Amino acid sequence: MAQKVGIQNKLRLSFGIGMALALMATMAPQETIAGKNTIQILDAKNAEILEMQAEAASNPFPKDTIFVKVDQFPIFPGGEGARIQFLRENISYPEAARSARIQGNVFVAFVVEKDGSITNVRVVRGVGGGLDEEAVRVVKSMPKWAPGLKGGQPVRVEFTMPIRFVLD
Questions:
Q1: What is the DSSP string of 1-67?
Q2: 23: domain range?
Q3: Which residues of the chain, if any, have pLDDT below 50?
Q4: pTM recorded for the entire structure
């Protein structure tokens, strides 16, 4: 709620008790508070508080928040079929794993950033034999995805993806 306050006719926004006390202090004649400097300090603090609250209102999610549940999940360019095709074309079965006949699912977690890039790639559950490292390498080489959305805004989303290694 916007209102004119005090003798100085400044437009202020009211945000609760703390702000109301600060506004009351700015309405008082300067002689009843500890002089001019007190008014100037209160004005600077009020402006800083208002600026912080306006920033929080315009961006409801802190910039480093990572979501696991969103309105729209990130999408690999071309969709799910294109993602599977990308994995098939880019995974190389490590020779050590092939010789030792190691196979299984490697679960890789990563973050799809607001711009669609892939970061924080890590193995959640691996099988060893070089398969874990190969899964991480391929995920890091993925092109940018369409970012996830929450409240209509792009947000950081964590994904966990199984990559299945099977010998012929």
A1: -EEEETTTTEEEE--SHHHHHHHHHHHS-GGGTT-HHHHHHHHHHHHHHHHHHHHHHH--S-TT-EE
A2: 2-58
A3: 1-42, 55-56
A4: 0.64
